[in-house]
Design brief:
There is one protein chain. The chain has a single domain (about 5-240), classed as NAD(P)-binding Rossmann-like Domain (Rossmann fold, 3-Layer(aba) Sandwich). By secondary structure, it is an alpha/beta fold. It is about 50% helix and about 15% strand. α1 packs parallel to α2 (about 40-50), α3 packs parallel to α4 and α4 (about 105-130) runs parallel beside α6. It is built from 9 helices and 7 strands; from the N terminus they run βαβαβαβαβααβαααβ. It is globular, with a radius of gyration of 17 Å. The structure holds NADP nicotinamide-adenine-dinucleotide phosphate. NADP nicotinamide-adenine-dinucleotide phosphate (NAP) binds near residues 91, 191 and 192.
């Protein structure tokens, strides 16, 4: 088992991409702290994992944007599992609108969840990883953070910030056995993209060289690779998983 005796925290794992990442890491032997904003969602995914891969998961609920609550949760997870080897910062939201009309509340909400949320969990686990001299930090960014996207000033800026944060952490922890990388998904079929009007989806597909949206499992494969021992010499990188959209 690739991740035997390893513990992973996956945020935003109640649905979509995070759920697929949690399932994938558990299928490869990791014990997984399944974190989402709503308890019902994280509990359900943890139950699903435990039904398939006996006793490997536990569900937790927190607002990723709340620094104090996240520190308390990370202490609890450390108490429950004794260590954390892999942190996947995947919790994210959109509040789209043209930049000139975007409300400060929508700007802040996206920054606080997508960017500060990742910082919060990072601070919750980094000391433990430094002490054990090993760890994998994987931040789920977006192609929007690389190429921009009209109507997503807040979201694209949060994801570009997350990419910069990933690289800073990579440099700071490079000699401590901890790698830090980002995965930048393109358009993936989840609740987040289900809300797009069909006309927009059709236009997007025309831009994607492989001519289809990706699946959450496509992102989970990239995360599994970066979390594994074979990726130990890869740090500070952004892996786009987007059917060729950005190249
Ligand atoms: P999703 O289906 O909307 O699921 C989002 C998850 O994040 C949910 O589990 C949600 O919790 C959790 N979450 C949201 N706000 C939170 C908060 N404040 N605290 C804790 N958890 C929170 O989204 P997705 O499409 O799977 O996206 C996952 C990640 O991939 C996001 O970071 C997104 O930006 C990124 N991404 C997605 C796409 C795409 O095409 N789907 C493309 C590029 C990047 P609940 O379940 O409890 O509501």
């Amino acid at each position: 088992m690739k991740f035997a005796n390893q513990v992973a925290i996956v945020t935003g794992a109640g649905r979509g991409i995070g759920r697929a990442i949690a399932m994938r890491l558990a299928s490869e032997g990791a014990r997984v702290a399944v974190v989402s904003r709503t308890e019902k969602n994280s509990e359900q995914v943890a139950e699903e994992i435990n039904a398939k891969f006996a006793g490997l998961a536990k569900g937790y609920a927190v607002d990723a944007a709340d620094h104090a609550a996240v520190q308390t949760l990370c202490e609890k997870i450390d108490g429950d599992f004794s260590r954390v080897d892999i942190l996947v910062n995947n919790a994210g939201i959109t509040r789209d609108g043209l930049s000139m009309r975007m409300s400060p509340e929508d700007w802040d909400a996206v920054m606080e969840t997508n960017l500060k949320g990742a910082f919060n969990f990072y601070q919750g686990v980094v000391r433990g990883m430094m002490k054990q001299r090993s760890g994998r930090i994987i931040n789920i960014a977006s192609v929007a953070g690389i190429m921009g996207n009209a109507g997503q000033a807040n979201y694209a800026a949060s994801k570009a910030g997350l990419i910069a944060f990933t690289k800073v952490v990579a440099r700071e922890l490079a000699t401590r056995g901890v790698t830090s990388n980002a995965v930048a998904p393109g358009f993936i079929t989840t609740d987040m993209t289900d809300v797009l009007p069909q006309g927009v989806k059709d236009e997007v597909v025309k831009q994607i060289p492989v001519k289809r949206f990706g699946a959450p499992e496509d992102i989970a494969s990239a995360v599994s690779f970066l979390a594994g021992a074979e990726a130990g010499y890869i740090t500070g990188q952004v892996l786009t998983v987007d059917g060729g959209l950005v190249m």
